[in-house]
Specification:
heterodimer, A: alpha+beta, Glutaredoxin, 5-stranded mixed beta sheet, 12% strand, B: alpha/beta, Rossmann fold, Ubiquitin-like (UB roll), de novo design (two linked rop proteins), 3 domains, 4-stranded parallel beta sheet, 13 strands, 39% helix, 15% strand, globular
Chain lengths: 164, 470
């Protein structure tokens, strides 16, 4: 696995935040890898384990548990729509449908273990997320690191146009 | 507060008392340390560092501050649980894994006033003797993590973090640790496991009370973002003075997050218990949508038991017992508990008569089925079955007996799990069934019991049918 020097520096810095136990750095290292490579690959798991002196299974069990880690490549813009009560009451499920039809995404194949659907051109990917803590101003969604409030279903195209 | 101007359209309501949210949506405010220092930022840190740690703890105890994360446990008492003869290092963790559905208060503290939190943490670390602290911020707040990292670097530069803070001899490092999207990390022992780099399976208590056996098996204090911010204000006002805010045993201010079917949803910081639910709904939030009637309210995040609009409660007022309705309930810890629900994390979800209760319960059940960590069988299996049953009712294939099955599954989770997630996942179902039984039953059909419910059964019926079916 080819880790650029800059990324390696960040990884070493993250590990230094845990003077008591290197194992604590599993999440931060995986975040850095995912941020750079888009998802956590098998090589990424092996690398993390070697880096932190762990068995690969210690890392893989973390990757498979947390919804925040992906094991397949997302689109260039990854959208997470809040599915939970207050957002659902304000129309997040309709928003999901609209976003999918506008972006050309087929969600019929998603499963609990593989919740991300990618558009054919690889530009957008989408998944439902549980409560994003923006309940008063739903529907809310995250596009990469950007948080959006009050994205009514009618504003789906407008949102996508901001990321093109 | 008179000299503070807020952004247009985001002014606080007249009934609010802004302590923690003083700088939220404030005109000309930013997250830099220079802006914060101009307003007396870090003055309480300097003051605390000149005090005895025990004296700081005593102020917090005297303030009556109760945890704002969900359980409402007295903060000073929690700090006091660190074993007196402890020789291991002590850690402090700020729980910024805000993820209880209906709650969205910490988001604004982290994004708009990070130095308030850092100052609260420094004071708290000094009081409990911690030299290493982490802010466990949920993965879905990527911007907040960046803002906090910048704020920590600034505090370092100005000598409020690092070695020998302000010449006091006290050392402290704070690091940001990002979660990865799991609700269970809000449970303090799950959070600790996650911070140790593992799956966040909560630990059993006893013996793993974090204050005795927490992070790396050392004494660890885990406090909510809002709670730690209050510590700063307690020091500023003095514990006794702070305790005059709110009502006895329910002191201070707290941020109520209102969402759902109201005119003006949002965050409102009020003195605890000084506002009834009716005042919050009709006065502060501008009432329900036109032509709608109140149907139900979840008063403290989705784990809290639902209250029906026409319910009556008997509560103690002084020595007398009085009967009150939902709208008369003061939004404090004790009254909500006496009414059979809880103040929880302050997330108030309002539902009007346009909402189907089976749809609402199904949405909640989907959440808990998704978020159960899977460690304890009753919760792992039960939360999924409750979801499957309400899925079926929503799909129009439910049977009347499903409602009893739901209640029975919920009853068998409650109290049979390692952590409080078991209760959190079963209380919505048990309370919805208890309070909206007729509506849930009406959403089902007796005839569904004899209908085939899957492809295999359809094929079987066709095969066994005497006449070939078209």
């Amino acid at each position: 696995m080819d880790i650029p020097a800059e990324l390696e520096t960040k990884i070493n810095e993250a590990i230094s935040h845990y003077p008591v136990s290197k194992r604590s750095a599993v999440l931060p290292v995986l975040h850095l890898l995912q941020h750079h490579f888009g998802f956590v690959s098998g090589d990424g798991v092996t690398y993390t384990a070697e880096k932190l002196g762990l068995e690969p299974i210690n890392v893989l069990e973390v990757v498979t548990f947390y919804p925040g880690f992906r094991q397949s490549a997302p689109g260039k813009y990854h959208i997470r729509v809040c599915r939970t009560l207050s957002c659902a009451m304000s129309g997040s499920h309709e928003l999901m449908e609209k976003l999918c039809s506008e972006a050309g995404i087929d969600r019929s194949t998603v499963t609990h273990h593989d919740p991300v659907a990618v558009s054919k051109d690889g530009k957008y990917s989408i998944e439902f997320a549980e409560c994003l803590a923006g309940c008063g101003f739903g529907p809310v969604c995250l596009v990469n690191d950007e948080f959006h409030e009050k994205v009514e279903p009618t504003k789906a195209k407008e949102l996508l146009d901001q990321y093109s | 507060m008179a000299d503070i101007k807020y952004l247009k359209g985001k002014e606080p309501h007249a009934r609010e008392k802004r302590l923690i949210f003083r700088n939220v949506d404030r005109e000309g405010w930013d997250t830099s340390i220079d802006r914060c220092l101009k307003e007396g930022g870090y003055e309480q840190t300097k003051k605390a560092l000149k005090m005895e740690p025990q004296a700081v703890t005593n102020e917090v105890k005297g303030s009556g501050l109760r945890g704002r994360g969900g359980a409402g446990f007295p903060t000073g008492v929690k700090w006091g649980f660190i074993p007196p003869k402890n020789t291991k290092p002590v850690y402090l963790i700020c729980n910024a894994d805000e993820s209880e559905p209906g709650t969205f208060k910490d988001r604004y503290i982290l994004h708009q006033d990070p130095h308030q939190l850092i100052e609260g943490m420094i004071i708290s670390c000094f009081a409990v003797g911690a030299h290493l602290a982490y802010i466990y911020v949920r993965e879905e707040f990527p911007k907040a993590a960046q803002i906090l990292e910048k704020a920590i670097a600034e505090a370092h530069e100005k000598g409020f973090l690092g070695k020998d803070i302000q010449g006091s001899g006290f050392d402290l490092e704070i690091y940001v640790h990002r979660g990865a999207g799991a609700y269970i990390c809000g449970e303090e022992t799950g959070l600790i496991e996650s911070l140790e780099g593992k799956r966040p399976y909560p630990r059993i208590k006893p013996p793993y009370f974090p204050a005795a056996l927490g992070l790396y098996m050392s004494p660890t204090i885990v406090n909510n973002v809002e709670t730690l911010c209050h510590v700063k204000h307690i020091l500023e006002m003095g514990g006794e003075e702070y305790a005059k805010l709110g009502t006895p045993r329910n002191t201070g201010t707290r941020i109520l997050c209102v969402s759902g079917d109201v005119q003006k949803p949002g965050y409102y910081e009020v003195e605890v218990g000084k506002l009834t639910f009716g005042e919050l709904l009709n006065d502060v939030c501008g009432g329900l949508l036109p032509g709608r009637k109140l149907k139900a309210v979840i008063p403290g995040g989705s784990s809290a038991k639902v209250l029906r609009a026409d319910e009556r409660f008997k509560i103690k007022k002084g020595d007398d017992e009085v009967e009150i309705g939902v709208e008369d309930i003061p939004m404090d810890f004790d009254t909500l508990m006496a009414c059979g629900s809880m103040a929880g994390s302050g997330g108030v979800i309002v539902m009007d008569d346009s909402r189907s209760m089976s749809w609402v319960l199904n949405n909640i059940n989907n959440f808990y089925a998704h978020e159960s960590c899977g460690q304890c069988t009753p919760c792992r299996e039960g939360s999924l079955w409750m979801k499957k049953i309400t899925d079926r009712i929503e799909a129009g294939a439910g049977m009347p007996s499903d409602v009893d099955t739901l209640a029975s599954v919920a009853k068998n989770i409650d109290g049979r799990t390692i952590c409080a997630f078991g209760e959190a996942s079963s209380w919505p179902t048990s309370s919805f069934v208890a309070k909206f039984r007729d509506e849930l039953v009406a959403a089902t059909d007796e005839g569904n019991a004899t209908k085939p419910s899957n492809k295999e059964q359809v094929a079987q019926q066709r095969y066994l049918a005497e006449e070939p079916v078209a």
